[in-house]
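Hi support team,

I submitted a single chain yesterday and got back a structure, but I'm not sure I'm reading the C-alpha cell output correctly. Could someone confirm the output below corresponds to the sequence I sent? I've pasted both exactly as they appear in my results page.

Thanks,
R.
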Amino acid sequence: MNSTSEAPLLRVDRLRTIFTLPDGRDAAAVDDVSLAVSAGETLGLVGESGSGKSVTALSILRLVMPPGRITQGGIFFEGRDLLTLEENELRAIRGRRIGFVFQEPMVALNPVYTIGQQIAETLTVHGLAHGRAARARAIEWLRAARVPHPERRAGEYPHQLSGGLRQRAMIALALCAEPSLIIADEPTTALDVTVQAEILDLLRELRASLGLALLLITHDLGVVAEMADRVAVLYGGRIVEEGPVADVFKTPAHPYTRGLLACLPGLADGRRLTAIAGTVPSLGQFPPGCAFAPRCVDRLAVCDTTPPGVTPSIGVASAGRSVRCFLHQPEAGGRG
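Hi R., thanks for writing in. Yes, this is the structure output for that exact sequence:
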C-alpha cells in the first residue's frame, strides 16, 4: 500500500448516478460517493444487495446504461478525469489500464467465441499481440489464472467450463492487458466454498506478483477481512463508514457496520448472531433523512428528516477513518 502522501491511482469524488424510474422520477442509486485506491492497495466496497455497489463500479468505467446517467462528480484515474474523456479515449483505458471481473462470467463472456479467442481479441484490440502470439499469450494467462490444461481450455466455449473455471477465465481476461487496477464485482458469487477460497487465493497472489490495485466489491465481510487493506461500507448509495479494515472491524462506528459484523460468524465475539431488521429500500423509496434510519436501533430524531454529512469518527479516530452518522456529531445530539 502506498503512502498516503502519494496521489491515489483512482480517486472518485462526490459521484452521483441517477436512474429515471417508470413514473418519471429520478432516483440516485449512487449519491455523493467519494473513495480512493492507491497503487498496490485493496479497497473492499461492502454492503447488502441494493446498496449501490455494482452501479458504483459501472459508473467508474462509464458503463451505466440508460435510464441511468452520471450527473455529478469526478472520476480521476492516473490523473485523468474519466468523465471528460471521449469514448475512444475510454476504450483505451477499459480493459487496458482498468480490468473488470464481472459478477457473472457466464453473462460477461461471449458464448459464441472460445475462451482463447476472447483473451486474444483483447490483446489484439489493445495492440499487445496478434495472431499466434496472441493465442500463445492467452494460454499463458490462463495458466497464470490456474486454469488446468490451458491449451485445451483455450479452445473451449464458456458453457463447457464449470463456474469456477469460468471465473478463472474471467480473471485471465481482466489481467491479460496488464492493467494497474482491477475492479472485481462479487468475484466469488454462486461458487461453492472451496472454489471461493481458491479464487480469493488467486486474486491475492496475482495482486502481490503483479503489483495490482484492487477494488473488491462484495456483500461478504469475511472476504473483506481476508483480502482488503481498507473497507468502505455502502448503504442506500452512500458510503456510511470507511477506514482500515482492522480498525473498522475492531471499533465499528456506524450502526449499519455494527449490524453487518453482528451477522458474521466468527466476528461476533462469542455472541449470538443477530440479523438487521428490515431490508434495503428499493430505488426511489429511500427516506428523506438517513437511508438507514428505518432499520436503525440507535436513530435520533434528526435522522428521519436530514441526511447526515461525513465526519471523522470521533472516539474511534485513526488515520483514514470517517463515518456518516449523527451519532458522531455532538451538535445533532450524538455522542461525539
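A quick pointer for reading it: The chain has eleven helices and eleven strands. Let us know if anything else looks off.

Best,
Support desk
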